Amino acid sequence: MKTILEQLTEKFEAAFAACGYDAKFGKVGLSNRPDLCEYQCNGAMAAAKQYKKAPFLIADEVVAKVPDDGTFSMVESVKPGFINLKVSPAFLDRFVNAMAAEEALGVEKEAEPKTVIVDYGGANVAKPLHVGHLRPALIGESIKRICRFMGNHVIGDVHLGDWGLQMGLVIEGLRDRKPDLVYFDEAYTGEYPKEAPFTIAELEEIYPAASLRSKSDEEFARRAHEATYKLQNGDPACRALWQHIMHVSVADLEKNYRNLNVQFDLWNGESTVQDRIPGMLAEFEQSGVAYESQGALVIDVAEPEDAKEIPPCIVRKQDGASLYATSDLATILEREELYHPKQYVYITDKRQDMYFVQIFRAARKAGLVPEEVRLDHIGHGTMNGKDGKPFKTRDGGVMRLENLISMVSDAVLGKIEESHKNQGDSQIPEAEARETARKVGLAALQYGDLSNQAYKDYVFDLERFASFEGNTGPYILYTIVRIKSILNKYAETGLDVNDYCDEIRDMGSESEKALKLEMAKIVETMDSAYQELAPHKICAYIYDLSNAFNRFYHENKIMAEEDKRKQASYIRLIELTKRALLLCTDLLGMECPERM
Question: How far apart are CA 501 and CA 559, in angstroms?
Answer without folding.
Answer: 16
